[in-house]
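Propose amino acids for all 277 sites.
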């Protein structure tokens, strides 16, 4: 299931369109990760849910959901950590519970347009990276009728995330500390985290979480926040400098107590991790 993004991204997996592959991809040692089971457990059916015969008579509904990742400071340590926005449901089913931003697919929207519109409506964000992640279609994801969700994921810079719209029903949460969410959305987030951690070993996805210019230490902080563990600074710096996809600028990060670090930039024409359809 692939579709060209009108926002400059394409959907699918592999290398992003419009960017030359790195001559020397950054090698970060990752523990072996097993693909999470995507056959999700059945959601318990509440009182008033459609019975089996009613559900079989209904055509499946199609919905769009989006996982949005951004770096925000930890409330305890101040170090960057991975966060995502959730929306509190104001109607049944699962009224009052937190869920991923999304909604039903209309006749007027393409899949990509629907995902972008849902993000703009709930958070005010328009991310440069918006990619189709997976389709989730368990038989009992929703108690009223069968719903197939096309899930997108997005990356935004911390400065963008700081300007995101928040309210009583739209709040940001640490991605690795979620408990129960509405429907099967906790499993969807877990799958998105697994994909993100694996993509950190190739491509340019890490740079979507940074600004146009960045220090090598800031790149390392992205890796540590996503992987959930520390990375050896000296070894990481050496590998990053050898990579073909960044270059040093003549500028330095000001405002620190020590010698200002040099700023770097990503040298690809566009950020991309997915092939054209």
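Proposal:
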């Amino acid at each position: 299931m692939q579709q060209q993004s009108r926002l400059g991204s394409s959907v699918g997996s592999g290398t992003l369109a419009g960017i030359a592959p790195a001559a020397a991809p950054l090698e970060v040692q990752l523990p072996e990760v097993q693909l999470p089971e995507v056959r999700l457990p059945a959601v318990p059916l509440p009182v008033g849910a459609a019975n089996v015969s009613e559900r079989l008579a209904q055509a499946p509904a199609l919905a769009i959901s989006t996982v949005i990742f951004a770096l925000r400071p930890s409330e305890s340590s101040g170090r960057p950590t991975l966060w995502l926005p959730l929306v509190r449901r104001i109607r049944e089913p699962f009224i009052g519970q937190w869920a991923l931003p999304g909604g039903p697919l209309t006749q007027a929207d393409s899949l990509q347009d629907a995902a972008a519109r849902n993000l703009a409506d709930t958070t005010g964000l328009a991310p440069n990276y918006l990619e189709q992640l997976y389709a989730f279609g368990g038989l009992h994801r929703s108690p009223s009728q069968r719903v197939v969700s096309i899930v997108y994921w997005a990356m935004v810079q911390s400065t963008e995330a700081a300007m995101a719209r928040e309210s009583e029903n739209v709040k940001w949460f640490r991605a690795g500390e979620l408990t129960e969410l509405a429907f099967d959305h906790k499993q969807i987030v877990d799958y998105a985290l697994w994909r993100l951690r694996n993509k950190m070993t190739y491509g340019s996805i890490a740079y979507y979480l940074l600004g146009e210019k960045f220090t090598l230490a800031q790149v390392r902080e992205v890796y540590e926040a996503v992987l959930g563990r520390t990375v050896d600074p000296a070894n990481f710096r050496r590998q990053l400098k050898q990579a073909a996809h960044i270059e040093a600028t003549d500028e330095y990060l000001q405002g620190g107590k020590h010698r200002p670090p040099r700023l770097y930039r990503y040298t690809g024409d566009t950020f991309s991790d997915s092939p054209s359809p």
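The radius of gyration is 20 Å. The domain at 1-277 is CATH 3.90.79.10 (Nucleoside Triphosphate Pyrophosphohydrolase).
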